[in-house]
Records
---
Amino acid sequence: MDVGIVGGTGPAGRALAARLASVGLQVVIGSRSADRAAEIVDDIHKKWPDRDLPLHPAANPQAAAAPLVVLATPWDAAADTAAGLRAELSGKVVVSMGNALAKIDGELQAVVPPGGSVAWGVQAAVPEALVSAAFHHLPARSLGDLNRPASGDVLVCSDHPEAFEATADLIRRVPDLRPFDAGSLAAAGPVEAFTAVLLSLNGRYKGRATIHLTGIDGDNKR
Ligand SMILES: NC(=O)c1ccc[n+]([C@@H]2O[C@H](COP(=O)([O-])OP(=O)(O)OC[C@H]3O[C@@H](n4cnc5c(N)ncnc54)[C@H](OP(=O)(O)O)[C@@H]3O)[C@@H](O)[C@H]2O)c1
């Protein structure tokens, strides 16, 4: 296995799983219910019958046994879920993709979780993990549409150079995605919060906007 996605049955997790599998990575889709994970893997295979997607269903602890783990639960469950998988996640690169958002007066707004970001909460829950924050700005609809390239610039934050590199290498596997080093986990809060603006734009203009940086070139090692 290459990547495990904890909470991989939601729109974000399954889109990321399908995209990573489409470039040949072995991906475990994790769930609190292994049966639900199996249903989702079946759904993805039915959606893309002509593609050989190496996807594997599992309960979350098995997904968290992969060498690199993405947390794709709702943001307010990310830290508790990570804490429950502490043994599996210790010493590993763990990618947090949660955005702390709430609908207030009909508008999606960023909320500030303890420590300032979802990723901070995950790192605090499993201090032995090498947490990075990434994938916040890629809409699941376009990420999971394998008929089109998943184009976009992915901001990666981490306190651990090794986690930045592993996350950036994963992103580089997908043609047309570019990783950028956005700094330490202290930068994860504003990166996550900006998703509220993007989602509002996408709602207002009926789009699938993500971010593309101009004025700097990748490739971008620390
Ligand atoms: N949707 C997007 O376009 C997008 C894009 C970028 C980032 N994100 C972020 O990615 C994360 C996942 O987004 P999503 O839309 O896929 O979320 P979601 O559908 O609400 O949740 C994903 C999965 O998490 C599991 N889950 C639900 N409640 C849980 C709980 N209390 N504890 C543990 N697991 C729970 C469920 O899987 P099981 O029931 O199978 O366990 C669910 O299918 C979010 O944090 C979001 O902010 C989303």
---
Amino acid sequence: MSVEVRHCPPDRFVELLKTAEVAFSEDVSDEHIERVRKVSDPERFVCAVDGDRFVGTGGVFSVRLSVPGGEIPAGGVTWVTVLPSHRRRGILRGMMRLMVDDCHTRNEPLAMLWASQGSIYQRFGYGLGTCDLSLEAETAAARFARDWPSEGSCRLLRAGEGLDLVGPVYEAARAQRSGFLSRTPDWWIGQLPLVDKDAKGGEARRLVVYETDKGPEAYAVYKTKMEWGAQGGNGTVIVEEAIGSTERGTREIWRYLFSIDLMRTLKAGRLPVDHPLLLLAAEPRRLGMRLGDGLWLRILDVPAALEGRTYGIDGHAGGRVALELRDEYCPWNAGRWLVEVTEGRAHVTPAKGEPDLALDANDLGSLFLGGFTATALSRAGRVVELRAGGLAAADRLFHTALAPWCPQEF
Ligand SMILES: CC(C)(COP(=O)(O)OP(=O)(O)OC[C@H]1O[C@@H](n2cnc3c(N)ncnc32)[C@H](O)[C@@H]1OP(=O)(O)O)[C@@H](O)C(=O)NCCC(=O)NCCS
């Protein structure tokens, strides 16, 4: 029987998500499905059906992504699976086409995703937009290089409390970095300790907020896993998210996380490559750092995406760069583009003259948030400089003072 790829009937949305359980080799609980349902537009989910049975799933979340100088609408591609019985016959290819075209029709200048394997998505023009740092630290050995007087205090909240405190911290941090997703209250439910979850001890998610007389400046969501060894407490702190809106807040929340009694190890993921912890630690090696891929970006509308951000480290740069873009998957993007920047704002038009750089859609995704410079991309044999000075011009425009950071998988 032939397989058909199409949009999922909204009344079969729960059944669709349950199909993903097999392909992901993970349980998808009813509670998880309910949380996903709340943040989803079921009309944006796609399926592959064999007869009456779902054999492939995919969907797009409607969010806004922070970019230098603001935010732009973006389609968050998610729940991509194909049943093992139906792999390698083009089902993902069909679903991706549907999802990418859906984002484009909705005027989302880019699509983005977290990849289980990056190689799957590069053929569709996704480029590595952010890097992801994870830690497995020995807390006592890594310790902080300098001490500083304590200001403010940390407060542990009960499940269901604190949305009014963490929301503004997240928004303030989001305004400082590109790569953050917008969050509605329903998105927050998935991030914070759950009211109804009967979780005890190490199973329980905890929320701690750092406050000063100026209000909340940081928070962390974490779990602790206790173990006793021959030398006593041998527990692990698992940090799910720790965000500071101020430098002081970031330092203090990590000081709290590093000094929980009876804990020997701290695990954290989804941190930016320039996280202050690397410089706070007296023994950075004991942070047990690992670098991985973060958010993958697919530019769908070159002028809308490039005009949606500001340029230059201060956001006020001027300059121009002409791009020769290859894009077979989204051919409307292909061709020459002139990016003219005045006072940090770009005007993007089809270019007539000779281009400065040649690149493909993946590379534009990597350049877009400033996660990689044009020079770094050229060293990897990706971007090619066609006119001397082209790389330097692009570096001056696209680079950002802080590395982009996406603290949330979706
Ligand atoms: C990854 C997955 C969705 C692929 O689905 P699929 O229907 O077999 O993929 P397709 O047949 O449409 O393949 C499309 C292209 O991707 C390639 N591809 C597919 N799976 C791949 C993989 N795991 N690694 C590298 N490339 C892969 C195919 O070779 C094909 O390339 P081509 O068109 O250039 O020949 C499926 O194997 C799966 O569900 N895996 C487990 C869950 C998962 O990892 N999901 C992704 C979450 S981010």
---
Amino acid sequence: MLVRFLLSTLTDFPTLKSPQGILLPEVALIGRSNVGKSSLINYLFNQKNLAKTSSSPGKTRLLNFFSVEDRYLLVDLPGYGFAKASEREMENWSKAVDHYLSTRTTLRLLLFLIDSRRGPNQEDDVMIAWAKEKKIPLLWIFTKTDKLSRVEKGKLQQMYPEAIVSTVKEPDGRRNIQQKIEKILGF
Ligand SMILES: Nc1nc2c(ncn2[C@@H]2O[C@H](COP(=O)(O)OP(=O)(O)OP(=O)(O)O)[C@@H](O)[C@H]2O)c(=O)[nH]1
Ligand SMILES: [Mg+2]
């Protein structure tokens, strides 16, 4: 799949149109800092450095826009709950993300990432409520399942039968996530 990086920004969100002149729909990744949002982008498109990742939280500090085959836009958002950032920095990101979420009319789907070892927390609950109010579908993706035992993974799937359980260590999961996204976008 042809994916290209468009730009990083806090304020000026790009738009692309289809050949028919229709604004392309958009998918954004949200979730706690360090949950694996940027890694999931690299995993999905099988490219090492498309999105920048880091083992320490707070790597993504801007909104990063990508075009997927010029059919939809994908946005890597800074994660929430990153305690080490300065107060001003936190304010800047959360303002930018709030602004993005409240104004982005082309936003069709949120990939909602949760660390499979931790489960959703209070901040995640706020996000869930927000998406519900705005009627934006959430695709739940539990990350880092390579860290779970087989039994733990089974329990997680039982508790959240609709959710995707994912690890970047298993190439097999890629297509499934892509297909779910495309289905929700109506492709
Ligand atoms: N074991 C394992 N590690 C993972 C997986 N996905 C991501 N990681 C690791 O988790 C860490 C954080 O990954 P990122 O993709 O940078 O996380 P992020 O959600 O983009 O973080 P912010 O940019 O801070 O919001 C990195 O060290 C990744 O290598 C996974 O499926 N399994
Ligand atoms: Mg990131």
---
Amino acid sequence: MAYWDDKVALVTGAASGIGQATVWRLVNEGASVIALDRNRDGLERTRAEVANDERLMALTVDLRDETGVINAVEQAAKWKGRVDGAVNVAGISPAEELLDSTREDWDELLDINLRGTFLVAREAARVMAGGEGGAIVNVSSVLALVGDPTLVSYSATKGGISAMTRAMAVRLGPQRIRVNAVCPGDVATPLLNNWIEQQSDPAATRAKIASSYPLGYYCEPADIAGVILFLLGPDARCITGANLVVDCGLTVKCY
Ligand SMILES: NC(=O)c1ccc[n+]([C@@H]2O[C@H](COP(=O)([O-])OP(=O)(O)OC[C@H]3O[C@@H](n4cnc5c(N)ncnc54)[C@H](O)[C@@H]3O)[C@@H](O)[C@H]2O)c1
């Protein structure tokens, strides 16, 4: 028997990186997954990767569209008759120079990262509250905890997700809905890998990033997917409101 047999989860940001790895892992652990993303082509790549049409439904939705989110979660709930888990992975992280940033930049980050996470969690909680409860996992970041001068607005969204996670956990506990967050450091997703490949010496750049981590390496998307699976499943039945740092020791390092 697999860790999460016969469960049903929806995953946002499912067309790439951590979201795609999470879909793959959940299906391989026995779950059926509704994969949400605004990137239709990316969702097709996820579908090809998973190669299990019975246990994967892909829905194209932009999280900035509240009606679209409400309809997508409703469709997800109808598919197998219930939703046991919701994983909020979708997000953007554009580099930003604070003094040149605009209100439009801020609004876009807040709309996608924070409001998008809120809307999906709220809609999923409505479904779960009418059933047997469930689990929500939000992907935050170590930047909810420490400062990066090039990602000020992004950090605000992640701080908001971490705080919202705690409050939702308290609100939804009586409905048997657990709400947790994962706070990753660097993860080797396409965004980071492509940036590394563009540097004059990619191998040296990769080694330099890795050397800043006490463990001497940083996470792969599958590492984050594994922690998400743990938080969704029965081994985490006593964990709610947690912000689990998954950063190979980055934020506990003093020197
Ligand atoms: N990669 C890292 O180093 C890292 C570190 C800490 C936290 N995170 C967080 O992990 C999450 C995933 O990161 P990733 O590196 O896998 O990113 P990614 O860019 O590979 O994937 C993000 C996905 O979100 C989707 N998305 C973006 N805006 C959307 C919208 N409005 N509606 C629907 N879908 C939308 C994109 O299409 C994409 O498929 C993000 O929330 C990010 O902030 C990433």
